[in-house]
Design a protein that fits this description.
90 residues; mainly alpha
Length: 90
């Protein structure tokens, strides 16, 4: 399982945990139900990716306060190299 697939699985488990308050653990639910949660995660990841990849001025300012000389391109490169990138590392 690559980093992107691990992220999908992790998000699917988190969505399940948030939505389902019963006694069924992730491992005890049928695979077709787990697949539904994976599809939810796959739908959410591009939204998060796009938000992070197009940093707002506030995001750039916060990054600069943490580490001077951070640019929007620096942030984009970091997001591109992350598991959020559905195309793998660019």
């Amino acid at each position: 399982m690559n980093a992107h697939e691990k992220l999908i699985e992790s998000m699917a488990k988190a969505i399940h945990a948030q939505k389902y308050t019963g006694s069924h653990s992730w491992d005890s639910i049928p695979d077709f139900v787990r697949q539904t949660y994976r599809e939810y995660a796959k739908a959410a990841i591009p939204i998060v990716y796009n938000v992070l990849r197009d940093p707002t001025n506030e995001m750039i300012d916060a990054a600069n306060r943490a580490r001077p000389s951070v640019t929007s391109r620096t942030i984009q490169a970091a997001v591109d190299a992350s598991p959020l990138n559905p195309n793998g590392k660019i």
